[in-house]
Amino acid sequence: MPIPRAAAYIGAPIRRGPRRPGRTRPSNPSHGSRILNETTERLIALQDLLQLKSDIEETSYEELGFEKPDVEAIETEIESLREEISPAVLRRYERIAGKYSRPLVPVRRGVCYGCFVRFPTARISELSEETPTTCESCGRLLYQIP
Questions:
Q1: Torsion of CA 32, 33, 35, 36, to 10 degrees
Q2: Cα–Cα distance between 118 and 138 in angstroms, integer?
Q3: pLDDT digits (tens, 9 = 90+) for 9-40
């Protein structure tokens, strides 16, 4: 079977047919460059700090040859983040955290990365709102990544 000339070597330009008129992708300047809202950023930071605190408590860093991180500094940062998040959102987060170790998960290409079920297309616009959206399948809080 002969190898097509364009694919004869790695890095060769791929030749494609002419573009059909009217078949362009709609330009959406906010897609891919959307910045997470403040509530979501704080929830992500809180989740990461809680995971770090849990890892510190479960792992003996001294046996591995590392210096043990300052747990008190992590705890104060967790408390300051909790004060910055609205009480209603924090209650939802903590309720979901009782069920899952990662209560806040990303949605990428329309798929929830908590349960790997496709997120409804009609609800994608809800992901950019100030209050976090929940997955209909697993109940986790969601945020969108490009």
A1: 0
A2: 11
A3: 444 455 555 555 554 444 444 443 345 688 88
Q: How far apart are CA 125 and CA 40, in angstroms?
A: 15
When pLDDT is averaged across residues 111-130 and rounded to a whole number, the result is 84
Taking each continuous run of H as one helix and of E as one strand, the counts in the chain are 4, 4
CA–CA distance, 108 with 113 (Å, rounded to integer): 7
Strand partners, 144: 107
What the chain holds in terms of domains, given with CATH numbers, is 34-144 (1.10.287.1490)
pLDDT (tens digit per residue) in 37-85 = 888 899 999 999 999 888 888 877 777 777 877 889 999 999 999 999 9
Token reading at 101: 């170790």
Answer whether 0.85 is exceeded by the pTM: no
Q: For the chain, list the strands marked E by DSSP.
A: 104-108, 111-112, 133-134, 141-144
Long-range interactions of 55-64: CB distance < 8 A, separation 24+? none
Nearest to 58 by CA among 45, 47, 46, 71: 71
